[in-house]
Write a structure and sequence with these properties.
492 residues, 10% strand, alpha/beta
């Protein structure tokens, strides 16, 4: 029997977590509803300015050549284009890059190869080290998994005709959207972020973030913002906010699409999300005091608070799950007014993010969006399944654990026939999967208590946890087994 005082403590924690999640859910409605009409596309520039394209690379054996070829194929005056290859690689990626650079240098391209043997600062360190050799006032950045289309520079640079614009961010596309269910779900989530969140923030004058790639910076905005800094894992978000706090505008261009390769393994996806979660919370710790003192309107500040702390939703989700079983054992708790009020409020708030993703699909694919409604539910399952990993990321950021950049492996996988199982950069089986299996079991025990007590209002949420952790843990183990040559031989 749980002591009465402890019941009230647990009920208070549950209410606090539910209330916090309610804010994020309602904000999803706000962002979805307050987008404006189509953006105004600026006219072409005349003459075209000198621009530098920076390509930060670390051990990208399978995609490095693709990136160089795409950048050198950009439709832009060759004498107005300077390319910086910022290579921190320790494998034969170096040779691939040097061969490509030799070839394109002979074709008349201006390409600078910069190799660091000391990866101090990781990507931020590489960008900062190359700052002094940028040519021109504008710099575009592409990560190794991106493939800029032919007209990308001529579409993007006209936004810089406005001297108040410090950054232009373009929408991410997806090279391998249809490779698997996992890639389709990732594409759905990214589409929602850009088409609704980034678009609304840009249109309404809220602060938003440069997403680290597929964008153009004004060099002066980088300098005014304090330059690239490596004290967070989200150097892109960090510098974005610092530049905007200095008065620079960040513009999002919805109609310009830059295709990229999505992670094809759930381990790589969790690693990517872990880095984003930890980095954004580190930025929140670093920037929120400064934002609070800024003279900007409160509406902009509130959006900044919700934006920078968005990943805290994951530990709140885990907390609610952990509290569910003990509270269900107290027969009067599910019928208490506090539980009923929060149950009534959290249900519609939970629908906020799915509505956001549906709205994005409707905007992007007006003739086929209805076919993908089922995947929105599956995305909620995936998002719940990675909540434990992201909870650890948030905790690491809050406890000030040392910054360590772990790259997301890429395999140049584009169509279903492509294989990743026999390639390098594969990830091992992390002990985290045991925690995911434990939470899957815990959710099942909670469902049993729901059946015994008749508190069926919480059943949909517990089912979400059950399927979420079960899917992520199961897929993690299955993909790990697929990497084993013996297992692959048996199954074929």
């Amino acid at each position: 029997m749980i002591p009465l005082w402890l019941v009230w403590v647990l009920l208070g924690l549950n209410s606090l977590a539910a209330g916090w999640l309610f804010c994020y859910g309602m904000n999803a409605y706000w962002l979805t509803a307050h987008r404006r009409g189509p953006e105004q596309i600026p006219p072409p520039l005349d003459p075209w300015p000198l621009v530098t394209v920076q390509l930060p690379i670390f051990n990208e054996l399978y995609v490095a050549q693709r990136l160089i070829q795409a950048v050198c194929a950009l439709d832009y005056p060759q004498d107005r284009l300077h390319i910086q290859v910022l290579d921190d690689s320790t494998d034969e990626t170096q040779r691939i890059l040097k061969d490509q650079i030799s070839y394109y240098t002979a074709q008349g391209f201006s390409i600078e190869y910069r190799h660091r043997t000391d990866r101090t600062g990781y990507k931020a360190g590489a960008l900062a080290a190359a700052q002094e050799s940028i040519k021109g006032d504008l710099v575009a950045i592409f990560d190794a998994d991106f493939v800029p289309p032919h007209a990308w520079l001529k579409q993007t640079l006209p936004y810089m005709a406005d001297p108040t614009v410090g950054v232009v961010q373009t929408r991410w596309g997806h090279i391998n959207r249809d490779y698997s269910l996992l890639t389709r779900l990732q594409a759905l989530g990214i589409d929602g972020h850009f088409t609704v969140e980034q678009q609304c923030r840009s249109q309404r004058g809220y602060w938003l973030n440069f997403n680290g790639t597929a964008g153009v910076w004004r060099v002066q905005a980088i300098v005014d913002g304090g330059g690239w800094q490596a004290d967070t894992l989200a150097e892109d978000m960090d510098l974005s906010y610092r530049a905007q706090l200095r008065g620079w505008r960040l513009v999002y261009a919805q109609h310009i699409v830059t295709p990229a390769e999505l992670p094809v393994t759930v381990g790589a996806y969790k690693l990517q999300q872990y880095r984003w979660a930890k980095g954004s919370i580190q930025c929140a710790r670093k920037l929120l005091p400064r934002i609070g003192k800024d003279s900007s309107p409160w509406g902009r500040k509130i959006q900044a608070y919700l934006h920078l702390t968005a990943y805290s939703a994951h530990p709140l989700m885990v907390l609610i799950l952990l509290l569910s079983w003990p509270l269900l054992t107290v027969d009067w708790v599910p019928k208490h007014p506090i539980s009923m009020i929060w149950g009534t409020l959290i249900a519609p708030a939970t629908l906020g993010p799915p509505l956001l993703y549906v709205a994005a699909q409707r905007d992007l694919y007006p003739h086929t969006w209805l076919r993908g409604l089922g995947t929105v539910v599956l995305l909620a399952i995936l998002g719940t399944g990675i909540s434990l990993s992201n909870t650890l990321a948030v905790g690491s950021a809050l406890w000030g654990k040392k910054v360590q950049f772990l790259r997301t492996p890429k395999f140049a996988v584009q169509v279903r026939q492509d294989r990743w199982q026999n390639k390098r950069y594969r990830l091992g089986l992390e002990p985290l999967v045991l925690g995911e299996l434990a939470l899957c079991w815990y959710s099942l025990q909670g469902i049993q208590w729901v059946i015994w007590t008749g508190a069926y209002g919480i059943l949909p949420f517990l089912l979400l946890y059950l399927f979420g952790y079960g899917y992520v843990a199961g897929l993690t183990i299955w993909q790990w087994l697929q990497q084993n040559p013996l297992f692959a031989k048996i199954t074929t």
